[in-house]
Write a structure and sequence with these properties.
This protein has about 220 residues and is mainly α. It folds into two domains: about 70 residues, Arc Repressor Mutant, subunit A (Orthogonal Bundle); about 150 residues, Tetracycline Repressor, domain 2. It is built from ten helices and no strands. Helix 4 packs antiparallel against helix 6 and helix 7 packs across helix 8. It is globular, with a radius of gyration of 21 Å. Keywords: DNA-binding, Transcription, Transcription regulation. GO terms for molecular function: DNA-binding transcription factor activity; transcription cis-regulatory region binding. This is Transcriptional regulator, TetR family.
Length: about 220
């Protein structure tokens, strides 16, 4: 029996959907392989061929799915921050929306501190790889600077949101508030307490919220 036009279109949509799902699955496998190997061996010692072998795909598939190693590292940064398979702009992230909707500084800081602690678990091995790669790779060095600058800009927006509650200390400017939060939500600060002193992510998140309340509220 010949297919009617509607059947042809449905078949094409189905085929397209299957291919898209397969491509997304391959990309996830490549990113997970890169994440694991960067954590195990370091950035420099991890080759694209090793990533391909771990992911169970061809080398050309790695390049097609995510690109060269600097591009892979960028994808890992973005997906680790968002907690999804793709980059999510800061203003569209769930914890950012909830923090903005919260009525008090304490609640805003608690929401954000909890998110920082959760993101830190995903980001820790990626940050280590990025710090290593930035020493010798110009693209990775630029990425590290970009991430730091973007985080600082987002903290200035956060400081302005906190200021709108009328609860912040009057002797601190918004830039100072932003810099305080920016420094304490950094990978380097987390590494001291969680990585070296053995704090849990939950304890770290609670500490950040309490410390920020004590430092920033009037």
């Amino acid at each position: 029996m010949a297919l009617v036009t509607g059947d042809v279109k449905s078949t094409r949509r189905y085929t397209s959907t299957v291919r898209a799902e397969q491509a997304a699955g391959t990309r996830r496998a490549v990113l997970q392989a890169a994440r694991d190997l960067f954590a195990e061996r370091g950035y420099a010692a991890t080759s694209i061929s090793a990533i391909a072998l771990r992911a169970g795909v061809a080398v050309d598939t790695v390049y097609a799915a995510a690109g060269r190693k600097p591009a892979l590292l960028r994808e890992l940064v973005e997906t680790s921050v968002s907690g999804t398979d793709h980059a999510v702009p800061a203003e569209q992230r769930d914890y950012v929306r909830r923090a903005r909707e919260a009525a008090t500084v304490r609640e805003k800081l608690r929401i954000y501190a909890t998110a920082v602690a959760e993101i830190g678990v995903r980001m820790a091995p990626v940050h280590r790889a990025l710090a290593e790669a930035a020493v010798s790779d110009a693209d990775c060095a630029a990425l590290r600077s970009e991430i730091s600058a973007r985080r600082a800009a987002n903290m200035r927006l956060f400081a302005a949101d906190l200021r709108d509650t009328g609860e912040l200390r009057a002797d601190l400017t918004d830039d100072e508030v932003a810099d305080i939060v920016w420094s304490m939500n950094s990978a380097e600060y987390r590494a001291l307490l969680v990585g070296e002193r053995g704090w849990t992510a939950e304890r770290f998140g609670s500490w950040l919220a309490d410390a920020w309340v004590r430092l920033l509220l009037a």
